[in-house]
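Morning F.,

Quick status update on the modeling queue. The single chain you submitted on Monday has been processed. Sequence for confirmation:
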Amino acid sequence: MNNSQVINTALIVIGGAFLLYTISVDDASPYFKIIGLIIIMLGLYRATNFWVATKDDHENDSEKKE
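Structure tokens below.
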């Protein structure tokens, strides 16, 4: 697994943890929700950029084999 994929996954999980915390606690600050959403969106943005950059890698591998 690529290091950037690990970072992206960690960001998504950490953001989700912030949001789950705000759901489970009665007096959670709304800033935790905002921070959680920002972290999730950052992880998703990085992940989709990585997927777009590597979407044609399988085609390059098949061309090299031929």
